[in-house]
Design goal:
Elements lengths: L9 H16 L3 E11 L5 E10 L4 H17 L7 E6 L2 E6 L1 H5 L3 H39 L5
Antiparallel strand pairs: 1-2, 3-4
Helix pairs in contact: 1-2
């Protein structure tokens, strides 16, 4: 059956997600118990234990499966879990629970998600600037070298 049962534990959730990505993309790697933190709008720090799943596919295949992946992830959110983040080619997207989106904290959640995306965009811009600077240095050093015959 294609119907996925709602997981009731983190381990069941991880197993469901791992199986789905393996069947959908041919394999995946799961890194459990990564520790993360982010700054809340009230200035306090929220710490999260996260799980990182990596899979490799073509952009064309991802685009063809993106909607299916998001629909699946929405079915395996645990009670109290606000969202699942997806990072694809350096861009993060979030699958948000219906409860979080409709709840009184929806504005807080959306502000957090917007802030995370902005921070990610800033980091991507810094990486690109470093890459351009590095390429410029390589070009300068290669121009200064004379060919020896």
């Amino acid at each position: 059956s294609n119907k996925t049962a709602q997981p009731n534990s983190v381990i069941q959730q991880q197993d469901s997600i791992r199986d789905f990505f393996t069947k959908t993309f041919g394999g995946c790697t799961l890194q459990s118990k990564e520790e993360g933190s982010f700054l809340l709008f009230d200035g306090s720090i929220s710490r999260d234990e996260t799980t990182i799943l990596k899979t490799y596919t073509t952009l064309k295949r991802w685009k063809g499966k993106k909607t299916e992946v998001k629909k699946f992830l929405a079915t395996v959110l645990l009670p109290g879990q606000d969202c699942i983040g997806l990072e694809v080619n350096g861009t993060t997207e979030y699958v948000v629970s219906a409860e979080a989106a409709a709840g009184k904290d929806a504005g807080q959640l959306l502000r957090q998600l917007v802030l995370r995306v902005q921070l990610q965009d800033e980091e991507a811009a810094r990486r690109q600037a470093r890459k351009v600077k590095k390429q410029g240095k390589k070009e300068k050093s290669s121009k200064g070298k004379k060919e020896i015959k």
